[in-house]
Write a structure and sequence with these properties.
The protein is of the alpha+beta class. 52% of the residues lie in helices and 14% in strands. This is Reverse transcriptase domain-containing protein.
Length: 277
C-alpha cells in the first residue's frame, strides 16, 4: 500500500477525504458546511449496499492496471482480492469483494470510487466522499431527485455496485447524518452538531462499561471510560458540543454512582461509604 499510494494519490479527487494522507473527516464536514452555506441545501445521500463484499474484481483490476504496469504487482493484488471475503463469519473465495480490514482495501476502495468522483466532477456536482459514504448537494428537491436517479444508474451500470435503495435518501442537511455529524441553523448561519444517533451510540458503550453485570474493578471502568470519552470528544470537537458534553457528563456520573451502589451491597457498607463521600 505504501508503494502504491503515491502513484494514485495525485490523481484522486479533492472531494475524497477517507483513508488518504493528510485528509480527514473534519475536512469533509467543513466542506459540506461550506456547500450548505452557499445555498446547496438539499442532500442526495447515496448508500452502497455491502460495498466491500460486492466490488467487481475484473473492473477493479482494470482500473489498477491503468497506472500499475508491473505484472508481478498486478498478480499479487489479484491474489489479495482472491483471498476471499467474510460472509456470515466464514471466509469465502469469490470473484467479488475486497478483504475488509486488509492493508490494501482502503486504497483499492478509493481507486474504484474515484471513477464515481470523476463522473460527479464532470457533471459539476458539489459532493463529499469519505470511503463509501457519499453525499451530493444541490439547490432543489427536483434536482435532488434527478441526480439520485442518474447517479444510481451510473453506479450500478458502470461500477457494477449495488445502491441500497432503502437507506439512500433525499433530504435536508439537518435531517441527514454524515460521518456522525449533522447541521442546524443559528442566526442564519449553518452550524455543525452531533447527530442524535452518535450520542446514543456512545451511551450504549458507556452502558456496557458501567453495566452491573460486568465484574470489572472501578479502576478498570474509569480507564475504559477515559479512553472512550477522550476519543469521542476529540472526534466531535468540530461540532457545538458544550451542552451535549455537560448532559453526557451528568448522565455518565449517574451510571458510575450506580456501579458504586451495586458494589456496596451491605447496608452498613453503603452507610460508611456515603459518609466518606
Amino acid at each position: 500500500a505504501q508503494q502504491l499510494t503515491p502513484i494514485f494519490e495525485l490523481k484522486f479527487s479533492d472531494n475524497s477525504y477517507g483513508f488518504r494522507p493528510n485528509r480527514n473527516a473534519h475536512q469533509a464536514i467543513k466542506k459540506t458546511r461550506q456547500y450548505i452555506n452557499e445555498g446547496y441545501t438539499w442532500v442526495v445521500d447515496i448508500d452502497l449496499e455491502k460495498y466491500f463484499d460486492t466490488v467487481n474484481h475484473d473492473k477493479l483490476m482494470s482500473l489498477v492496471a491503468r497506472e500499475v504496469k508491473d505484472k508481478r504487482v498486478l498478480k499479487l493484488i489479484r491474489a489479495y482480492l482472491n483471498s476471499g471475503v467474510m460472509i456470515n463469519g466464514v471466509i469465502v473465495e469469490t470473484d467479488k469483494g475486497c478483504p475488509q480490514g486488509g492493508p490494501l482495501s482502503p486504497l483499492l476502495s478509493n481507486i474504484m470510487l474515484d471513477v464515481l468522483d470523476k463522473e460527479l466532477e464532470e457533471r459539476n456536482h458539489k459532493f463529499c466522499r469519505y470511503a463509501d459514504d457519499n453525499q451530493l448537494y444541490v439547490k432543489s428537491r427536483k434536482a435532488a431527485e434527478r441526480v439520485m436517479k442518474s447517479i444510481t444508474i451510473f453506479i450500478e451500470d458502470k461500477l457494477k455496485l449495488k445502491v441500497n435503495k432503502r437507506k439512500s435518501a433525499i433530504g435536508r442537511p439537518w435531517e441527514r447524518k454524515f460521518l456522525g455529524f449533522s447541521f442546524y441553523t443559528k442566526q442564519e448561519e449553518i452550524r455543525v452538531r452531533i447527530h442524535p444517533r452518535s450520542i446514543e451510540r456512545v451511551k450504549e458503550k458507556i452502558r456496557f462499561i458501567t453495566s452491573r453485570s460486568n465484574a470489572w474493578s472501578m479502576e478498570f471502568r474509569y480507564l475504559k471510560l477515559r479512553q472512550l470519552i477522550i476519543g469521542w470528544v476529540s472526534y466531535f470537537r468540530l461540532a457545538d458540543i458544550k451542552t451535549k458534553c455537560q448532559e453526557l457528563d451528568e448522565w455518565t456520573r449517574r451510571r458510575i454512582r450506580m456501579c458504586y451502589w451495586k458494589q456496596w451491597k451491605k447496608i452498613k457498607t453503603r452507610h460508611d461509604n456515603l459518609i466518606k463521600l
